[in-house]
């Protein structure tokens, strides 16, 4: 977020954004589930110019053993940005930003996973950002959600994530890079299928009424993402379901 946004033009004469989207439109999303053969579950997801890869392992015995919990599985989430994923090379390895994103993203999944059913086990979620264009934490959560399903890990439902924000004085959905860089606010959220919010962060400033407007928009964005996630699952598993029916 930058306070120096006065000279940036965010909307054309038709009210469309720099990438021709309407204020309430998300970027195109494409998904491929089950792209890695060594992981228990995986998903490759593109959202606008973002490209992320999620891999899930587990539930498996937690190592090192001192990390084991006697009454439930430990859930670990590692968000990593590849050095080639951004314009200025990102310094490899964990940093404050990636640690924070990993923590809040892990917490976004805790309510939907049945950790108590797997004492001493670990559920490991790894996300690699291959190309970044704003919104990578939400793209990563959407991919991780589908990789968890692909791994066959029981869940109460999917987690879907999206951001809203304020650019040029207007509330818009799913900020792209210039909007994220020069806009006034960014509000990423994640929510469960039944609308329970499991992640909420905010960068910048919104008035209470702008916050309400952004929340309504971003919840609608998450529902749009959920439909795309469900369609990707159906595409991946419909053939398996059809095969099962043939066996009956
Ligand atoms: N970014 C970057 N270098 C970094 C971190 C971020 O170029 O070290 C860019 C990247 O395009 C990212 C965007 O800034 O998607 C917004 O970053 P933010 O921290 O808001 O997280 P995100 O929106 O990706 O979840």
Structure notes:
- With 248 residues, the chain is of the alpha+beta class.
- The protein has a single domain (29-242), classed as Ribosomal Protein S5, domain 2, CATH 3.30.230.
- It is built from four helices and ten strands; from the N terminus they run ββββαβαββαβββα.
- The protein has helices spanning 96-109, 136-150, 177-182, 208-247, and strands spanning 29-33, 41-47, 50-61, 74-81, 121-131, 159-167, 170-173, 185-192, 197-200, 203-204.
- A five-stranded mixed β-sheet has the order 1-2-3-5-4. Strands 6, 7, 8, 9 and 10 form a five-stranded antiparallel β-sheet that branches.
- Strand 4 (74-81), helix 1 and strand 5 (121-131) form a beta-alpha-beta unit.
- The radius of gyration is 19 Å and the shape is globular.
- The model has no long low-confidence stretch (mean pLDDT 95).
- Uridine-5'-diphosphate binds at residues 86-87, 90, 97, 132-137, 177, 180, 186.
Topology:
Layout: E1 29-33, E2 41-47, E3 50-61, E4 74-81, H1 96-109, E5 121-131, H2 136-150, E6 159-167, E7 170-173, H3 177-182, E8 185-192, E9 197-200, E10 203-204, H4 208-247
Parallel strand pairs: 4-5
Antiparallel strand pairs: 1-2, 2-3, 3-5, 6-7, 6-8, 8-9, 8-10
Uridine-5'-diphosphate binds next to helix 2 and helix 3.
